[in-house]
Amino acid sequence: MTSKYFFNKYYNLSNIISLILFIISIFFLIFKGLNYGVDFKGGTLIELRSDNTNYKTEDIRGAFNKLNLDDLSVKKFGAEGDYVIKFKRSDLNEPDFIKNLKNDLDNYLEDYNFRRVENVGPKVSTELLQDGVTAIAIALAAMLIYIWFRFEWQFSIGAIIAIFHDVIITLGIFSLLSLEINLSIVAAVLTIVGYSMNDTVVIFDRVRENLKKYADIKIFDLTNLSINETLSRTLITSVTTLLALLSIFFFGGEILKGFSFAMILGVILGTYSSIFIANPVLVYFKVSQKTLIKEEN
Amino acid sequence: MLYFSRLKIISIIVFCFSLIFFSISNFINNEDFFLKKKVNLGLDLQGGSYLLLEVDKNPVINQTLQSKLTQVRNYFKKKEIKTFDYKLGKQKVLFKSDTNDQEKILELFKNDNELNPYFDVYKSNQYNVDLIDNIFELTLTKYGIIEIEQSLLDQAIEIVRKRVDEVGTNEPSITKSGSNRIAVELPGLDNPDRIKSLLGKTANLTFRFVTQNTDASFGSEKLKNLDTGEELNVSKRIIISGDNLIDAKPQMDNINNETVVSFTLDRLGARKFGRATKNGIGKQLAIVLDNQVISAPVIRDIIASGSGQISGGFTFQSATDLALLLRSGALPAPLNIIEERTVGPDLGEDSIKAGVLSLIIGFILVILYMIYKYRLFGLISNFALIINLFMLLGFLTIFEATLTLPGIAGIILTVGMAVDANVLIFERIKEELKKEKNKVIAFDNGYTLSRTAILDANITTIIAALILFVFGSGPVKGFSVTLSIGILTTLFSVYYIARLLTSLYVIKNKNNEVTIK
Questions:
Q1: Domain with B250 in it: what CATH number?
Q2: Which end of chain B is more exposed for a tag (fewer CB within 10 A), N or C?
Q3: Do A184 and B406 touch (CB under 8 A)?
Q4: Contact B405/A256, CB-based, under 8 Å?
Q5: Interface pTM (ipTM) of the complex?
Q6: In a domain, B165, yes or no
Q7: Domain identity same for B66 and B180
Q8: With left for phi above 0 and alpha for psi between -120 and 50, is residue A81 left, alpha or beta?
Q9: Which pLDDT tens digit goes with each residue over B50-85?
Q10: Are residues A23 and A87 in the same domain?
């Protein structure tokens, strides 16, 4: 049994790099935090389209600035003339708010329309955030239990560390780039959890099979063998998934940009971590044929 | 794993075709097509408005406690137990009694169903009683509050439905959400301002006299007259209320050339109104809506017919809205709009275009890549993928599931991940072909040995999707729906369609050279 590539040579190096990235991400998450959208922060989001091509972002911002809105942000959104405006609102219960806002805005802007209006009260946004965090926590726990049930605990820990690595670094990059966290990002993170697990499980499945077959190969080389045997699958699936995601990223419209970007990061990290994070954990725990036999008794 | 009985082959074909048949009904615009089921488009794709309303229970709780206070006082008076110092605290009723009656009072609260109703369903009383520093504190129990919330929500949802129906939007959906919320979905509505202002009013209508006398037995309150802007002293005694109304509609009053709301009262209301107008000729009658006086005409004549007019400087629109509110009845409690999401139809259309475009491009890229990687077997896998997509759409149609923009992303992701199972199998077969001379056995082994990995991999993804389904809200839920159904159809298409085609090919070419590139 000869392996083509020696991934195991780079276990230590990759673990150090990952640890550094992980710590930097945590650092960003703590000190810079995440840029929550209205889903989680509450407030109002307006997607505005203007047919007047002379307007620049400053003009739109200037017009909204005159309306005395708290915490106002105005950004371009995809196509020319499309903007997203976000602000906090003091009185959520004024049913005519948007109507009045439009009336006021008419004094400063023309040829515009609101394509999308989202209004999330503080209570709902708090609940949505709690639900999102709970969902991710439960997903992690469910994965841990599932893999524990199917494999041995050493595998379970390896997979979970890999998932944590992927999720934290993805969020760290979102923090670094100040990208917006909204409901669809939670969906993306959950899918990343599933995908990363999926990738890891396929390799682990092979590790287990090889453990039964070759009593004499040490886990250090055995993981490498298993990675090599499953490598083309790992790469082909990552490529097809990335092709689908890149297609969403470039052609799926602005609304899905954040979602597909998070998923692209997740798939790349997930592929990397299933090789360079999950497997070293098995080496660290000195998994051997005995581990399997012990479990069976 | 490669053998298929004839019956099995036929069942697979029938199953696929029936799902494809369902999926096709989405593309045919024929009303006669006997299956009219279609995939619902989410509000983010077809445009529309979503409102989440929360019933404000606090005013009703205060009212309940207020009347409880009176009831308790009368109850003990009848029992000849001395109680005094009644007060309405924050969400509680306070009172005192002589020290030697305290035991007895607590006992009565525990056992007398009239004083403190017992709910069998919840195994709990309606009220809690505590004795703190010789003061009784009466508070609603958790279930007492749930009782109130449920009846409030039931009443409120009826009124909301009536009001939304009256506006006549296209297929609105109005559902309970949790214990005190109502979710309203209004497809196709890109400006919810009117609905919002209609739902934002409780529409509590009362007819009362304007009085100079501030210390009448019913008391009075100062209310603003919207018509003239002045403050009026209005008696708290209610002559008739909105409950007595059986109809209301906007009308053009030809004499003054203004829009009015004409109303018809039920028999009881007509009698009361007749009596009041008879006794009150020359007095001012205040027509009060939600604690604001709409108008306060002077009664000139007896109105016994049970119908009348409200004028108050209405435009035709505001008269129409008021009539609508009066017809649908008063909300039992104010509703707060705690979440609103509105998507314009043009944005929805753009989203559909972008979604479909990215689906097609993603699909073509994956198909080309698979052909490049696996040649003939890539074609087989692609064929399974196409059937897979139709089946996915077929299932969505049968369940009349709602397709959202993230849902389309879920389908695209399914395309990317669906080939994974076939890749796992093909790669395994390649390995087996190196070891095994007999092609059929090698292929069979490839399928058998890759099975656990495929199952594990897909179960983990399904777990993530299901959790998202439970916790996700709105459009994101649509993502979990397409992703989970996508995984199931993928497994089917891989194990039945692709495997069937592979086996037919391999068995036919048993003795020829068969390789997977």
A1: 3.30.1360.200
A2: C
A3: yes
A4: yes
A5: 0.90
A6: yes
A7: no
A8: left
A9: 999 999 888 888 888 888 888 888 888 888 888 888
A10: no
